[in-house]
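Running co-folding for adenosine-5'-diphosphate.
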Amino acid sequence: MARLDRATALYPGSFDPVHNGHMDIILRARRVFGRVVVGVATNIEKRTMFSAEERVSMLRGATAGYRGVEVQAFDGLTVDFARRIGARVIVKGLRAMMDFEFELKMAAMNKRLEPDIETVFMMTSPEYAYLSSTLIREVSQFGGSVAGLVPPAVERRLRQVARSARKVSR
Ligand code: ADP
């Protein structure tokens, strides 16, 4: 196995939008691995609030100046993308109980598809344990503040979206 500080790790997700729980995992992953590629999944089944371009651009803005962190969009299998970018490790964040079953299933399937790639889990920091993009979207759509839970530019963008949705419904 390559030395960790020279290894590339892939951190995949939908990031719709990126929040501080994600940012925390990106920073901690970067402390362990030399290069962290944040992979924005574009072929996800769920309908997203933000387009793939916007999700990538919000992440690029939030990680600007982070050495060793890149943001790339991908579609298709996560393990295929990991192989393409030379990542032998997939990093996933784990919140309370809600992520465990799903992530266990995904890790087992990915191992079967690509035995050379390891999935590594990082436990959420307690302050982000209940944070999810779904919750962020819901709160901001109803006019609630998500300040301190998402990067500032994401907060501004969410406020803009909520304002224009309210104008349309008037
Ligand atoms: P969300 O579940 O917030 O919509 P994604 O599907 O984009 O986020 O998740 C991408 C990755 O980030 C997954 O590995 C997920 O478990 C992890 N993650 C999401 N929220 C948190 C959090 N609050 N703390 C730690 N990891 C998280």
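Result summary
Residues 13-15, 21-22, 25, 92-93, 95, 99, 124, 128, 131-134 surround adenosine-5'-diphosphate (CB under 6 Å).
The chain has a mean pLDDT of 93.
Job closed.
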